[in-house]
Amino acid sequence: MRNKFLSQLLGSLLVMTATPGLAQAFEEINDTLYLENKLAIHLYQASELADGKRALVSAIELPEESIISIDIHNINSALSDATSSPERIRFPFIPPGKTEITKNSAGFACGFRIVDVMDEDIRSDEIMDRTDLCLSLSDLRVTGALESNGTDALKSFNEFMQEGRLHSMNSLSKYVDRLRAERIEFGVIEKAAVQTVISPIKNCGRGCLTVTSEYGMRNHPVLRRKRLHKGIDLRAATGTSVVSVLDGKVLATRTEKNRRTKRISGYGHYVIVVHPGNKLETLYAHLSGFKSKAGQSVKQGDLIALSGNTGIGTAPHLHFETHIQGKRGYVPANPRSYLGSILSSVAWIANLFKIG
Ligand SMILES: [Zn+2]
């Protein structure tokens, strides 16, 4: 367990300290478009069928008000292909509840990831780690764009959604091309400010921050099932100030409710912040109150919320997640990779024995 943990940590350090050349910088350009769906939609994944044929099959019915993301380049090429070469995106697929392959007319865009879904069971499912999910272009019409790295791209996408025509996508194409050229010319990737993550709990750093539950597989204390705990739990009395660990932008402030009883459950009140300069997303859960709004720019250390005990939990604490940007999108990573230097060495050793 210890070796696995150390190799995870080394992996994260390598990612953080890598100084890519221009060729690599080109590969790593990733401008994320975040979308929220107004109605339930199906996400598909490519599968090989029993007879050896391949088709997209329904991977999940995503409830309304989820957040999905995709690289702007992926959505741009899919929407452009919809008019110029539709055969390229009309993949054979099997509609939900059917067994026969059907041809589709709208086409699909692929490369989606589920960023957030207000359903505990889905949130703990492996589907959340995939970055290759597909969405029928006809379903794009029930999505709305949230804050994104590229405001020009966001504007083009919104025009496309409102007018339902592809002409506005030309400006998105131009934007993407310009962005690539600029980034390669000036090496923006290398110049991006990389800050060190600070404690998400205000004025509580080394010697103060206490881990009450680690990232990793665990028996859920309330639900009594084994599932991946995607964050780290930090002791915090209700009403403690929670701050953004890096410069960034608040993507969403949300409240998870049980879909049947409508009572607050799961993550309770929570905030998601994106930090494009540091290639991270962070999530802060079980809050007692919000002190920030979606779309708001925040500096490292800015107050974003108050901690609490909303949702499913045993005692007041802050549940803190880090999602690291990989080649194909953001994936959950152990927050210890970032908080290691802040957490005291005694807690560090004690927690190593508690894991697994
Ligand atoms: Zn937690």
Automatic annotation (TrEMBL):
Residues 1-23 form the signal peptide. GO terms for molecular function: metalloendopeptidase activity. Pfam families: Peptidase_M23. The keyword Signal applies. Residues 228-327 form the M23ase beta-sheet core domain. The keyword Transport does not apply. This is M23ase beta-sheet core domain-containing protein. Keywords: Signal.
